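Narrative of accomplishments. A recurring question from our advisory board has been how the design workflow behaves on a single, concrete structure rather than in aggregate. To address it, we present the structure tokens for one chain from the evaluation set, followed by the sequence designed for it. No filtering or post-editing was applied between the two.
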């Protein structure tokens, strides 16, 4: 297949591709609040149908719709699957946005809006790569499948039953995961796995209602109760204190350590962007990178209790809630850590705290020496004309384990984002140049995968 014709098609239709991405960005799809998700799922299905994909809608007993699309090749039985998601993070804090979060505003070569980078930009770039191949060559060199999740941003809590029930639809020889892009030097970054995550709420209760803080000598304060419980979970050196928390953490292989030596951390750029003088405990170099990718964590995401408005209100709250997430590494599991958390608090006299488990995923990865990893690496280096940076695992999380561990094929995460994309933050954006280059990369990969 002549890739020059494909590249020309992408170049000529750049404006049309951008308009389609903006169309998707303008549609809210906040899974955490149930805002616009079903409408967005229908739009995703429509966009796949518009370029000739056959589609199906999968939905479990609860949860958001999964949109599936496929286009079979006339030349090959090989199949490449793309995992993406149409749901996005909440746009708050709204006052920090320069433009409306679902505006799709173009400014200085960037598309602004929640989901522009994560993950609607990557999804549309892959869809347009397929379109370019179909229009320029009339056929695809391999079978292509799209699996577009509607709950990735909340931990895909309802995905496993769908995967198991409709397993035959999701069979493939390999898959490209939802995220990725280039670093500040334009080098393509490839990720071979994900940490797992366990998200929980821990709640403390006191009186039946808020009371005057003058009653503090007599009425128990659930906010303090919760703080005392939290003190049992982690010390000031960032060590998690839950009994046997680190027991199943797999030691790094020689191959993984060698791979880490070739990953540029971009420390100074990151500190400057975040206005930090140093990382935690002055970590730097290989030590910092190893901590980022291979250290399990316990993180407070939010603390809710009592009055949080301006000025003062002398109130004693009747309840308090903390939101936590635990990032897990091979060979930890979410069930194991949840059970250890419950036992730990109970053992120390805090069995009265209520623990509510939310979404969870398991850590997983594809080996560095897998042939598909080598193919994606060579393709990325050809398109971007720079050496690829390979991450054996990512600090982020997602339901990759359902595809890698259960369905069994190799997975590499690669995309079209960039370091200043503000993913999960106000003013999320995607560079148009990155979007188009990412489209060329995916078209090239599909072609090379056939060979």
């Amino acid at each position: 297949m002549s890739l020059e014709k494909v590249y020309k098609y992408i170049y000529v239709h750049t404006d049309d591709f951008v308009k389609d991405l903006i169309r998707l960005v303008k549609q809210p799809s906040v899974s955490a609040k149930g805002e616009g998700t079903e409408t967005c799922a229908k739009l995703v299905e429509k966009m796949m149908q518009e370029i000739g994909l056959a589609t199906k809608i999968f939905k479990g007993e609860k949860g958001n719709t999964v949109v599936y699309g496929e286009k079979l090749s006339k030349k090959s039985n090989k199949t490449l699957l793309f995992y993406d998601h149409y749901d996005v993070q909440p746009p708050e804090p709204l006052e920090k946005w320069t433009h409306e979060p679902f505006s799709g505003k173009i400014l200085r070569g960037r598309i602004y809006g929640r989901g522009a980078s994560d993950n609607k930009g990557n999804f549309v770039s892959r869809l347009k790569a397929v379109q370019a191949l179909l229009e320029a060559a009339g056929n695809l060199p391999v079978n292509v499948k799209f699996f577009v999740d509607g709950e990735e941003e909340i931990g895909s809590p309802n995905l496993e039953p769908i995967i198991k029930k409709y397993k035959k639809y999701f069979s493939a020889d390999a898959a490209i995961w939802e995220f990725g892009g280039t670093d500040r030097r334009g080098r393509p970054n490839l990720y071979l796995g994900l940490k797992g995550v366990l998200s929980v709420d821990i709640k403390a209760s006191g009186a039946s209602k808020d009371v005057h803080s003058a009653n503090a000598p007599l009425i128990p304060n659930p906010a303090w109760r919760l703080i005392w419980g939290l003190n049992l979970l982690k010390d000031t050196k960032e060590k998690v204190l839950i009994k046997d928390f680190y027991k199943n953490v797999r030691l790094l292989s020689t191959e993984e350590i060698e791979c880490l030596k070739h990953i540029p951390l971009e420390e100074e750029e990151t500190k400057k962007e975040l206005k930090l003088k140093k990382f935690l405990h002055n970590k730097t170099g290989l030590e910092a990178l190893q901590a980022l990718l291979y250290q399990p964590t316990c993180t407070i995401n939010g603390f809710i209790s009592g009055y949080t408005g301006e000025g003062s209100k002398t109130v004693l709250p009747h309840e308090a809630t903390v939101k936590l997430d635990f990032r897990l590494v091979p060979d930890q599991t979410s069930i194991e850590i949840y059970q250890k958390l419950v036992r730990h608090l109970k053992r120390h006299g805090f069995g009265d705290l209520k623990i509510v488990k939310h979404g969870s995923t398991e850590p997983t990865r594809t080996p560095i020496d897998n042939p598909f990893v080598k193919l994606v690496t060579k393709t990325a280096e050809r398109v971007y004309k720079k050496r690829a940076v390979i991450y054996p695992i990512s600090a982020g999380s997602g339901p990759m384990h359902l595809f890698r561990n259960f369905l069994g094929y190799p997975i590499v995460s690669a995309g079209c984002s960039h370091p200043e994309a503000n993913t999960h933050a106000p003013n999320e954006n995607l560079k148009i140049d990155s979007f188009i280059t990412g489209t060329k990369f995916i078209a090239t990969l599909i072609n090379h995968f056939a060979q």
